[in-house]
Amino acid sequence: MSPLLLLLLGLLSLIVCVLRGRRRSVRFDSGWFGREDEPPLITGWIPFIGKALEFGRDAHTFLKEHRKTFGDIFTVHIAGKYMTFIMDPFMYPNIIKHGRQLDFHQFSDKVAPSTFGYPPLVNRKLPGLHTEMFRTFQLLQGDNLGPLTESTMGNLMLVFRQDHIGEAPSAERGWLSGSMYEFCNSVMFEATFLTIYGKPASASRHSEMGGLRADFLRFDNMFPLLIAQVPIRLLRQTKASRDKMINYFLPHRMSCWSNTSQFIRRRLELLDQYDSLRDVDKAAHHFAILWASVANTVPVSFWAMYYLVSNPEALEAVRQEILDVLKLSGVDFSSTKDVTLHKDQLDKLIYLESAISESLRLSSASINIRVAQEDFSLRLDGERSVAVRKGDIIALYPQSLHMDPEIYEEPQTFRFDRFIQDGREKTDFYKDGQKLKYYLMPFGSGSTMCPGRYFAINEIKQFLCLLLLYFDLQLEDGETKTTADSSRAGLGILQPTADVRFRYRLRTV
Ligand code: HEM
């Protein structure tokens, strides 16, 4: 963060502190100070910023260390907000089902419009829009998943065939070298884009895709600051990239695209019913969906590919499972022909699914947020309750669960079959001898749970199927282990600290 921004935030904080100073129960060695029924409060010495910098550097370690001192529930002062962390996974169900006193949407309803550049949805001038837009999420699930999956398959095959497989006979193709993140990003970004928004009228691909990806990256790099509510006008380049991407979705452009998903067609129709929305406002909604659909899917694809390529036995087992499922349907795979895997075939790939779940477990660092609507006593389990103040944030941080050695033996290790038991998906995970209701939460929880989760898993499965079927894959010699960059903790899937060099060659089958 630049010194100017820190100074601005500091000044803002002083004003906020003077206007609405608060006292909490602060822990001293001799005991507690303040309201006893409130969780202990952890504050920093910098006004307003509080513990934001320490938390931002490595949220998982920060919470683990503070849990040792303060127990399973504590409040942390972060960038002007009071965030109460619930660290005991047996308390999660009570938070996830909590009724009118905890609002799931207030935080995202406030932050998303300024980040993506559309007017707030909860707005008298836009009656019903919030509810209707929420309803469109159903078009990513259930029966709608079939057509989406077929379309993804075609688009992935198109990008693979034109960019990586080519028409040459396999014997003539030697090893090619690539950067793994860049590879996943170029394939998944474009295939997702084509599946959701469609293709231009007179071509099978959008010629501006490279530019769009570059602008997306520039915007996404500053995403943590935007979510922290730093005004975008202070980030000139980020604003320019966002404007370019929004302009790509202007109605006169989108109306020329074909093969657009039912999900986006419904959203176009809906947005058109509101005269008070300008064209750029409508376009900004489509841009927000682009971010939601690729910002996490790309890094998960990377981690799954990286772990499989780094573990050749796991890769071979998963590849064999895919070949077996194809064979069961009467398909003898050949790298000279295009392949299709339908939704029911993808559902049978349980080892592949387990490898993806394991990659999600190792790389996901999202935060689940609810905002208290009034001062009230929050029941945590049969015995415990804590006092919560109106406006406070109640937060679950599932990375603590994903990395708990009591739940997952050797939690830092990738085990591709961790989510398989007796030839089926494993759903029994225990802590303190008790079965957990929630043990893997990369997609959030409750009513704000990711509506694109089934589509995302199918898409990642399809990507990995094509990769493993068509290519021999290896890490480049001397390539060292990459790690997850914790600086985006709280925002979803972590990215790698550095890209990884790998080589790939068309398989001779
Ligand atoms: C592996 C990939 C993905 C991961 C890990 C992921 C994760 C998440 C998470 C953690 C949330 C917030 C949940 C909460 O606040 O509790 C979310 C929300 C959302 N996701 Fe995903 N997501 C993925 C892929 C997708 C895809 C492919 C789409 C769309 C095509 C999508 C669309 C959305 C939308 C629209 C929301 C906002 C929902 C709302 O406003 O209630 N996501 N996602």
Q: Sheet bearing the most strands, described?
A: 6 strands, mixed
Helix/strand class: alpha+beta
**Main sheet: which strands, in order across?**
3-4-5-12-9-6
Q: Would you identify the regions where 5 or more consecutive residues have pLDDT less than 50?
A: 1-21, 27-34
Q: How far do the termini sit from each other?
A: 52 Å
Question: How many DSSP helices?
Answer: 20
CATH architect. name of the largest domain: Orthogonal Bundle
List the domain count as a whole number: 2
Output the CATH class name of the largest domain.
Mainly Alpha
What's the β-strand tally? 19
Protein name: 25-hydroxycholesterol 7-alpha-hydroxylase
Cofactor: heme
Subcellular location: Endoplasmic reticulum membrane
Pfam families: p450 (PF00067)
Note down, in words, how this protein is organized:
One of its GO terms (cellular component) is endoplasmic reticulum membrane. Pathway: Lipid metabolism; bile acid biosynthesis. Heme binds at residue 450. Its main location: endoplasmic reticulum. Substrate binds at residue 296. With 509 residues, this protein is of the alpha+beta class. The protein folds into two domains: 3-118 and 367-401, Uridine Diphospho-n-acetylenolpyruvylglucosamine Reductase, domain 2, CATH 3.30.43; 131-364 and 402-506, Orthogonal Bundle (Cytochrome p450), CATH 1.10.630. It is built from 20 helices and 19 strands. The protein has helices at 3-19, 52-57, 59-70, 92-96, 106-116, 129-135, 145-165, 180-197, 209-221, 223-227, 236-248, 251-254, 262-272, 279-294, 297-310, 312-328, 343-347, 350-363, 399-402, 453-470; strands spanning 26-28, 31-33, 41-42, 73-78, 81-86, 102-103, 176-179, 364-366, 368-372, 376-379, 385-388, 393-396, 420-421, 424-425, 430-431, 434-435, 471-475, 491-493, 501-506. The protein has a six-stranded mixed β-sheet. It has a three-stranded antiparallel β-sheet with strand order 7-19-17. Helix 8 crosses helix 15 and helix 15 (297-310) runs parallel beside helix 20 (453-470). It is globular and about 75 Å long. It starts with a helix and ends with a strand. Mean pLDDT is 91; it is low at 1-21 and 27-34. The structure holds protoporphyrin IX containing FE. Protoporphyrin IX containing FE (HEM) is lined by residues 108, 140, 292-293, 296-297, 300, 366, 368, 442-445, 448-452, 455-456, 492-493.
